[in-house]
């Protein structure tokens, strides 16, 4: 984009970048159905699960009374998930991952409520000593359950480095085999799939906790459980933990292909 007086005047920069983002959104929506089996399923099952969570947070099947603290926590998680999906469609992959990181904190907190009945009172009292993200994670690790915490230290650290912190080890917006930063507004399959899987991961755990912590009709609970199962099954293997190994193998394959190409040209 050329920087001239018109570009720098008032809102012209936004108008031009929004055009790129709108185009990226349209191209992403067309691309996802063609991205194999998992990616389209991850998005469709996520929509169904979010519909249940949004309804649970809104007391759609009856208001339990009380302070609605749990419902509000679920509501925030729904909004973050919706925002993360919107951002990935616009090409803001790092920013999408940042919201998934926040949902990871919510998932861990809700699961601590399931495992420790005193944790809710501590959280409501604003006890940072026991309710901060790191203390919540440590508390869950003590239960020696392979499923806990939902978002472990490795995943949280990677999400923080790529999406939240100014980590020198991560190039910004570099969701491609060469690890080259690309300005948001360009659809990148690696970024799309990564973000979809990272939205889905904490969301499933949030939903499981919601079905336990919020009183619901049996038929709704049964249907929501199936939505959770469908979401779990739709999550692919490419996530923030496998990303580095995947990129290393792809670069190795690319280098080998280039080397073979040069050998062929030389004969």
Number of helices: 11
Find the count of extended strands (DSSP E, 2+ residues): 0
What percentage of residues falls in helices of 4 or more residues?
A: 55-70%
Largest sheet: none
In whole angstroms, how far apart are the ends?
A: 42 Å
How do the helices and strands follow one another from N- to C-terminus? HHHHHHHHHHH
Uncertain runs are: none
Into which percentage range does the β-strand content fall? under 5%
What's the Cα radius of gyration?
A: 21 Å
Q: What characteristic shape results from the CA principal axes?
A: globular
Taken together, the total number of domains comes to 1
Task: Give your account of this protein's structure.
By secondary structure, this protein is an all-alpha fold. The chain has one domain (39-266). It is 68% helix and 0% strand. The chain has eleven helices and no strands. The longest helix is centred in the last third of the chain and has 25 residues, at 189-213. The chain is globular, with a radius of gyration of 21 Å. The N and C termini lie far apart (42 Å). The model has no long low-confidence stretch (mean pLDDT 92).
Notable traits:
0% strand; mainly alpha; 11 helices; globular
């Amino acid at each position: 984009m050329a920087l001239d007086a018109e570009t720098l005047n008032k809102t012209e920069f936004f108008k031009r970048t929004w055009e790129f983002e709108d185009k990226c959104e349209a191209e992403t929506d067309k691309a996802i159905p063609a991205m194999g089996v998992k990616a389209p399923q991850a998005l469709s099952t996520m929509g169904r699960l979010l519909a249940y969570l949004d309804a649970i947070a809104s007391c759609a099947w009856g208001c339990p009374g009380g302070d609605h603290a749990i419902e509000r926590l679920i509501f925030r998680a729904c909004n973050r998930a919706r925002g993360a999906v919107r951002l990935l469609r616009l090409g803001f992959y790092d920013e999408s991952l940042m919201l998934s990181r926040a949902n990871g904190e919510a998932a861990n907190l809700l699961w601590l409520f399931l495992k420790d009945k005193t944790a809710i009172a501590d959280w409501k009292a604003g006890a940072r000593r026991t309710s901060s993200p790191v203390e919540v994670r440590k508390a869950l690790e003590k239960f020696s359950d392979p499923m806990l915490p939902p978002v472990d230290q490795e995943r949280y650290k990677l999400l923080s480095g790529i999406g939240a912190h100014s980590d020198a080890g991560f190039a910004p917006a570099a969701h491609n085999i060469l690890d080259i930063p690309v300005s948001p507004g360009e659809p990148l399959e690696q970024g799309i799939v990564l973000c979809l899987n990272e939205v889905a991961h904490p969301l499933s755990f949030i939903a499981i906790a919601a079905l336990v912590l919020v009183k619901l009709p049996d038929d709704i609970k049964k249907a929501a459980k199936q939505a959770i199962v469908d979401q779990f099954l739709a999550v692919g293997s490419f996530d923030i933990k496998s990303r580095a190994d995947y990129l290393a193998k792809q670069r190795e394959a690319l280098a080998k292909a280039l080397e073979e190409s040069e050998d062929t040209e030389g004969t």
